[in-house]
């Protein structure tokens, strides 16, 4: 089990859509670390207590961050993305991020990153979720427009090869 991973807003939204998505992540990580702006982005009036609402007090850790100003282009991103990338960079741990624009900077900065859909494949490979749950979760992500057909097909093919 990896100890920690930083998350941007998109993967947390995707986790909400999956049956037992947060439980799957508990099998992969001890903590999902999120910067304050990411928490602000997923919290609104009806979800004021997001962490408590989803029963993830043990999984989510909110941590302040200093922007990694040495990363070229970091200030061109939304605050949540910029803080998440900066936090992963500063802590030297992997990043969950789904937006294509936001993936360019971690790629250049050699920050290990993936989207939530890839985490489903990892959870399957590590025996955390069974085959039928992996396919179901990927299908949910496709149907909820969290991934496109090409990503879905590629990840299903990876699962098929196991």
Tell me what the structure shows.
The model has no long low-confidence stretch (mean pLDDT 91). Strands 3-2-1-4-5 form a five-stranded parallel beta sheet, with helices on both faces. It has a single domain, classed as 5'-nuclease (Rossmann fold, 3-Layer(aba) Sandwich). The protein is 52% helix and 12% strand. It is built from nine helices and five strands; from the N terminus they run E-H-H-E-H-H-E-H-E-H-E-H-H-H. It has helices at residues 9-17, 21-28, 36-42, 50-53, 79-91, 100-108, 116-125, 131-143, 149-160, and strands at 2-7, 29-34, 60-62, 95-96, 113-114. Helix 2 (21-28) crosses helix 7, helix 3 (36-42) crosses helix 5 (79-91) and helix 8 (131-143) runs antiparallel to helix 9. The protein is of the alpha/beta class and 162 residues long.
Q: Give the overall shape.
A: globular
Our count of domains comes out at 1
Rounded to an integer in angstroms, the radius of gyration calculated over CA atoms is 15 Å
Q: What is the share of helical residues?
A: 40-55%
SSE series: EHHEHHEHEHEHHH
User: How would you sum up the major sheet?
Assistant: 5 strands, parallel
Number of strands: 5
Q: What percentage of amino acids are in beta strands?
A: 5-15%
Q: Any idea of the CATH class?
A: Alpha Beta
Provide the CATH architecture. Answer: 3-Layer(aba) Sandwich
Structural class by SSE content: alpha/beta
Q: CATH topology, what is it called?
A: Rossmann fold
Major sheet: arrangement of strands: 3-2-1-4-5
Mean pLDDT: 91
Q: Any idea what the CATH superfamily is called? A: 5'-nuclease
End-to-end span in angstroms? 20 Å
